[in-house]
């Protein structure tokens, strides 16, 4: 019998194959979001390294926000209640990640003392993976989103409503 990998483990494997933190999360939830893998990778490509190595919000956190937006988000700008509900959901997800890691900010999670790195990404070497907590942070983010989905299943009524709009 084959053991099913958690979404966090799947996301971590995407990261270890070279995808950035945000891409790794969005790709791990491809079945749930229905996004084509190439589209998911392009959509989330700007958010690695805390948004293009600006070291702001952790890319894995941005990734779970994208998954949540695709599955639970609102699309009517006049839907005040939907917006309020969704922002509360995003704050809850951020709070869960923050409670486990102390922050949702990339530079703080990495212990950096500067706001922005050069645009060129670091080469993915064994040393790169060994010295960074990113793989574990990505795994945690994926598991947080997976647990949220289990606790708050997307109803078929929600999906039908999204398709009709």
Structure, described:
This protein has 165 residues and is mainly α. It has one domain (7-115, 122-156). Helix content is 65%, strand content 0%. The protein contains 11 helices and no strands. It has helices spanning 7-16, 21-28, 30-33, 37-44, 48-51, 59-72, 80-101, 106-110, 126-131, 134-151, 156-164. Helix 1 packs antiparallel against helix 10. The radius of gyration is 16 Å and the shape is globular.
Topology:
Layout: H1 7-16, H2 21-28, H3 30-33, H4 37-44, H5 48-51, H6 59-72, H7 80-101, H8 106-110, H9 126-131, H10 134-151, H11 156-164
Helix pairs in contact: 1-2, 1-10, 2-4, 2-6, 2-10, 6-7, 6-10, 7-10
Brief characterization of the structure:
It is built from eleven helices and no strands. With 165 residues, the chain is an all-alpha fold. The longest helix is centred in the middle third of the chain and has 22 residues, at 80-101.
């Amino acid at each position: 019998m084959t053991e099913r990998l958690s979404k966090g483990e799947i996301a971590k494997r995407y990261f270890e194959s070279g995808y950035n933190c945000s891409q790794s999360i969005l790709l791990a939830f491809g079945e749930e979001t229905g996004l084509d893998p190439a589209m998911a990778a392009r959509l989330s490509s700007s958010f690695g390294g805390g948004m293009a190595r600006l070291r702001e919000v952790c890319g894995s956190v941005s990734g779970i926000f994208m998954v949540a937006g695709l599955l639970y988000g609102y699309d009517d700008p006049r839907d005040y209640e939907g917006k309020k509900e969704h922002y509360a959901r995003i704050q809850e997800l951020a709070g869960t990640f923050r409670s486990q890691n102390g922050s949702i900010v990339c530079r703080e999670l990495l212990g950096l003392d500067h706001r922005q790195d050069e645009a060129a990404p670091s080469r993915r070497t064994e040393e790169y993976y060994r010295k960074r907590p990113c793989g574990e942070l990505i795994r945690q983010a994926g598991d947080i989103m997976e647990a949220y989905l289990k606790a708050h299943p997307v109803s078929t009524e929600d999906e039908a409503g999204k398709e009709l709009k």
